UniProtKB/TrEMBL annotation:
Keywords, comma-separated and alphabetical: Ion transport, NAD, Potassium, Potassium transport, Transport
Domain RCK N-terminal: 9-131, 240-357
PANTHER family, A to Z: POTASSIUM CHANNEL PROTEIN 2-RELATED-RELATED, TRK SYSTEM POTASSIUM UPTAKE PROTEIN TRKA
Keyword Ion transport found: yes
Protein name: Trk system potassium uptake protein TrkA
GO CC aspect terms: plasma membrane
Molecular-function GO terms, alphabetical: potassium ion transmembrane transporter activity
RCK C-terminal domain span: 151-235, 377-458
Cross-referenced SUPFAM superfamilies: NAD(P)-binding Rossmann-fold domains, TrkA C-terminal domain-like
Domain of life: Bacteria
């Protein structure tokens, strides 16, 4: 049980105690925000109450009386993240009636609802952000495909700054190099190492630190230098031209449609003949095949060994893991595996899974940026939520505007890794003066995120 003494009044009401609700509650309660979780499921609430120091209420989030009991009038944000689009919508509707000022974020999957996105934002229930986990998962896959040799990929400032995580292998020019010596390397001045994962431990590197084989290194680089930087670091950037998708559900279809637009040769394997028929009617250039993604004979027949990437997206994660491992053993260059259970994440790399995609985790990352204080535009979790990379706009009356980085009291465990100023992007130094309207990229370990929020908020306003 985590017990925290909260020193502020930022309040978040979460409707839904499933995986997304649980992990959002865990993250923001740790940061000393007041959290109330609503759910009808007794066992889900018990898991929350036994693990996190938050208030739990048994009931339906679509009930006005339950919302009032949760103190919706005092909440800065309400998150409707149950598995039911209808409950989420009704919860936002009554939240809007009871507390119009409360920001409403909702998880929706049904395309019929999402097609009315602008109307739902402009008119009642005045939803601030609609999160579709399937679309977020497709975007995550596309980022992985952009750098096949990376373990983790994120982008900031509309793609102008990239965060890349990759394993140091034998032959890497970074092996044995002190970080302070990196600027002397070719193109080294355009790279900043934000973090290192060594033997499952997160390290904030310093100038005298030396990188070792097997380290998972996170670099920040301007996009214009990325291709050359990755080439020098011997990270695989060979374009993905042939893809096999296993699973033709919502995410599988959206992924196939996205690849079709990019003219990437794609095969899609699906067991259900009716789903295959529907997919074949919707997709023009994707080859739709009826079959089982764990059938070795089928994979051989469809030349899985020639695939640049195999993406397993069925609704069963055990099937996804097995299919990815089979494809890898049979010669596929890389794999991306859909996994929903957060508890599986630490295990998959050890057994040969290259990349994980989780619609739930993608939704969590999207939600976080809207909960953060300090005008945060985006947020990406790394290494099992031990740390976060945030993008924020500097407001004219904030605590950082007009100061050099070395004069800003960022806590230990936080590092400004990139700055976007109008049309310019650059890696900052201690003498860089932060200006109003700068977009700054901040790496922060979990323990100091609330301190970063306080530094980034304005002086005269209280959130």
């Amino acid at each position: 049980m985590i017990h925290l003494t909260r020193s502020n009044t930022v309040k978040v009401v979460i409707i839904g105690a499933g995986e997304v609700g649980f992990h959002i509650a865990s993250r923001i309660a740790y940061e000393q925000k007041e959290v109330v979780v609503i759910d009808n499921n007794e066992s889900a609430l018990q898991r929350v109450s036994e693990s996190i120091d938050v208030q739990v209420i048994k009931g339906s989030g679509s009930s006005p009386s339950v919302l009032k009991e949760a103190g919706i009038e005092d909440a800065k944000v309400v998150l409707a993240v149950t598995d039911s689009d209808q409950i989420n919508m009704v919860a936002c509707l009554f939240s809007d009636y009871i507390s119009p000022k409360t920001m409403k974020l909702v998880r929706l999957r049904n395309p019929d609802y999402i097609s009315y996105k602008k109307a739902l934002q402009k008119h009642s229930p005045h939803i601030h952000t609609i999160i579709n986990p399937d679309i977020e998962a497709v975007r995550a896959i596309e980022r992985f495909m952009s750098v096949p040799g990376a373990v983790d990929v994120g982008d900031f400032a509309d793609g102008r700054i990239q965060l890349i995580g990759f394993r140091l292998t034998m032959g890497s020019p970074l092996l044995g190099i002190r970080l302070m010596d990196m600027p002397r390397m070719e193109n080294g001045g355009n790279i900043l190492i934000a973090a290192v994962i060594r033997k499952e431990m997160l390290i904030i590197p310093r100038g005298k630190d030396v990188l070792a084989e097997g380290d998972l290194v996170y670099i920040v680089c301007e996009s214009r230098y990325l291709t050359e930087t990755l080439r020098l670091l011997k990270v695989d950037t060979t374009p993905v031209r042939r893809v096999m998708i296993i699973g033709g559900g919502r995410v599988g279809y959206k992924m196939a449609a996205a690849l079709e637009k990019k003219s990437i040769k794609t095969k899609l394997i699906e067991k259900d003949p009716k789903v295959c028929q529907t997919l074949a009617e919707k997709l023009n250039r994707v080859m739709v095949l009826k079959g089982d993604g764990t059938d070795q004979n089928l994979l051989i027949e469809e030349n899985v060994q020639n695939m640049d990437m195999v993406i397993t997206l069925t609704g069963d994660e055990e099937t996804n893991i097995l299919s990815s491992l089979l494809a890898r053993r049979m010669g596929a260059r890389s794999n991306i595996t859909r996994i929903s259970k957060f508890s599986y994440f630490p295990l998959v790399e050890a057994i040969g899974i290259d990349h994980i995609v989780s619609p739930r985790l993608s939704a969590v990352n999207t939600i976080l940026q809207h909960i953060r204080e300090g005008n945060v535009l985006s947020a990406i979790s790394i290494k099992g939520e031990q740390a976060e990379v945030m993008e924020a706009i500097v407001q004219h009356d904030s605590n950082v505007a007009g100061k050099t980085l070395q004069k800003i009291p960022f806590p230990k465990g936080a590092l400004v890794v990139g700055v976007v100023r109008k049309e310019d992007t650059f890696i900052p130094t201690g003498s860089t003066v932060i200006q109003t309207d700068d977009r700054i990229i901040i790496f922060a370990v979990r323990e100091v995120i609330s301190k970063i929020e306080k530094i980034m908020t304005v002086k005269l306003k209280y959130y």
